[in-house]
Amino acid sequence: MGRGGAELRHEPGGRGVNEIVLLDNEAVRALRDPAHKKHRHVIGHVLNAARRTARGLQVDVGVPTAVRVEAGWDRTAAAWAFVNRLRIADLPLGPEHADTAAGIRKRTGVSVADAHLGSAIQSAREHVTVITSDPGDVRVVAEGRRVEVVAL
Amino acid sequence: MTREEAIDRINDLLDSADPQTANTSMRIPRALRDAAALAVRELDVAPSTTILTANALRAMLEGAVVMAALELHFEQYPEARPSLADLAVAAAELDGHPLAQQPEFLRRAAGEVQQRHPDASPEDVLLWAEAVQSCATSREGAA
In the predicted model, is pLDDT for residue A6 greater than 50? Predict the structure, then answer.
């Protein structure tokens, strides 16, 4: 799994990602702040993903880069050192995601970050779980794509 | 090298796009090597034993390095460590399991499992909770 600008890998040779867990703005903030009331909840998901990955059931954790911007996650800042170590992949807002996100934003009126989250959900080839403080918005931006929503 | 430095270095190496390969003098049991070769040839589990080995190693390292980073975090913030019950609820949520809607039931199940199996996994708790619920449903049906 790549981080800091690299996209999630889908390698030849049968090592595709089985599942992806996406974080929204609040989930990122909860992960960073040990005093956040949902810190342990999000940590539990990251730990479960790591345990399953180590057992060969690849579960990646990812964050759309627009969500990262919204959460203020600067990978070069020391304050984010702990979160940087958790192998959370960036899902960049490349041309294809931008087109999809623009469509979602136009149809639903959500924020840029939520629209990017929606494009990440809609383009995922694997089982998707989103950890969010706003389950309603996630269902809106998924636009019918099946997604597990974990409410913070 | 501190553990933080080791974790950061391992992460950098795992993210490296360097396509260079290296022969290793790593010794593995012959039977394991033969089993891997057979699995590749007859079961099509991977295009080659090299890819099979590299993928398995990568998966283990990717999981292990995150767990090591979390362990460091728990040393500093013990209250951040999720309990077995927390992990069982998270596992149910991740899987979209119906029991995710009954977190208190899962928490009780985690307590029961942990009494007899201190090293139980979150998936063990889910299985136990499912069994308990299934028995309860059967009893209700028979009554």
Answer: no
Residue A89 domain boundaries:
19-151
Q: Has the ipTM of the complex gone over 0.85?
A: yes
Q: Is pTM beyond 0.80 here? A: yes
State the residue for tokens 């996630």: A138
CB atoms within 10 A of CB B84: 22
Task: Return residues 1-60 of B near A (CB < 8 Å).
Answer: 4, 7-8, 11, 14-15, 45-48, 51-52, 55-56, 58-60
Among candidate residues A31, A34, A30, A29, the one with its CA nearest the CA of residue A72: A29
In a domain, A126, yes or no: yes
- The number of distinct structural domains making up chain A is 1
Indicate yes or no: CB of B94 within 8 angstroms of CB of A49: yes
Residue numbers in A near B123 (CB within 8 A): none
pLDDT in tens, A16-59: 568 999 999 999 999 999 999 999 999 999 999 999 999 988 89
